[in-house]
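Exercise 7.
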Amino acid sequence: MRPEFAGEDEQQLPLTILARGDLDRWKQGAGDAAARWAEANGFEGRSGQMLLVPDEQGRIREVLAGAAREQGRDSRFWLASILERLPAANYRLTNDLPADERDEAALASLLAQYVPAGQNHQEATLARMAAPKGIDGNRLRVIAESEFMTRDLINAPASALTPDRLEQAVRDLADECGAGLRVIKGFELARTCPLTHAVGRSSEHSPRMAELRWGSKGRSLTLVGKGVCFDTGGLNIKPGKAMLLMKKDMAGAAIAIGLGRMITRLDLPLRLRILLPIAENAISDRAFRPGDVLTSSSGVRVEITNTDAEGRLLLADALELAREDEDDLLVSFATLTGAARVALGPEIVPFYTANDRLADMLAEAAIRVRDPLWRLPIWSPYQELLKSTVADLANSSESGHAGSITAVLFLLRFVQSPERFLHFDLYGWQNTPAPGRPVGGTGQAGRALLATIEEYLC
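Solution. The predicted structure, written as tokens, is:
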């Protein structure tokens, strides 16, 4: 379902946001009957309150929504929780909101229209809001559409979203925006991306590297997204409960595709490259093993100490391929470590960069567009935790300490220009329902990065 604003020529019901201090002023202009109705129904402008105010014929005259301006989990895109409970109709905001709140309210109205996989889109009855004056409606539609695409990819069961299907998703993007696409498989993959080949060779669905190129002007940006369509953990097999969400281990690729769609649909003046290493980490007699030593295309020898630390192997291949270009910015997205969730929980994404200016811009954008991020340190002394006696480095640390930091230190061994590198350790999933974000796959970091690259690269 495509998210849309209500049309200007359609009948629209007024929707008024009221905080506690605004209620008396509203009552003065609303008339005695409406004021008494609000009092009788206990409407006080509390966060999350909603009231349908009837006219003399019993039809909806106006909708009142209690403002959620306090900080807290439900304050982000809170207007979506109101729209999700309203009768199917068109609405318009009567408030003159500050610019950032206006943009958030408009995007919330679009995000509220998402129908998760498995529900009948035709039977969905949705409230739609008119685009508030002063917003860039096309931009917000593109962002919401791309977010929906990302969610749909993450939500798809692994039996449906095979490596072939994930390749098709990036192929669809290439067709949509007129980009070039190259897919490396088979013998060529084993030669140029040996780590990805080793991880994916045990699956009936062959591994591959998808490379999209778009744009011929401006500065260069490469997005790398981990595309593990299902992760058993390999021979270091995960417990059954830990495998329940492993269909989402391709969220990094889904977010890279979604961000790529935002960039191309908004026609940003960039030279964009997307690299997606795609595989399943399955178990068979062809699976790679603990104790194996794998050699990357540049000659870096990696001891496999844990086959469940496979995502960084795929990213390493992509990061080495990225060396072909001297990018102005190289970004990797991956559901890489449980340690990131222990540190910051499921809703805040840690990011790593050696570029202080980029970090400051990203942190500011994250607050402005309500896409929570937090910078963690690249602590080089922890490189000792990845020491190997038989190779250049191990793919995981035996200590269990600083798991997210050691993962990014592993990646940095394959990066040509660390000061131009940015990494996000994602979760990509909404565990409990929140405004505009039902349980299931969710895009993270993409909106904040979009806002940042428009300032940093454009």
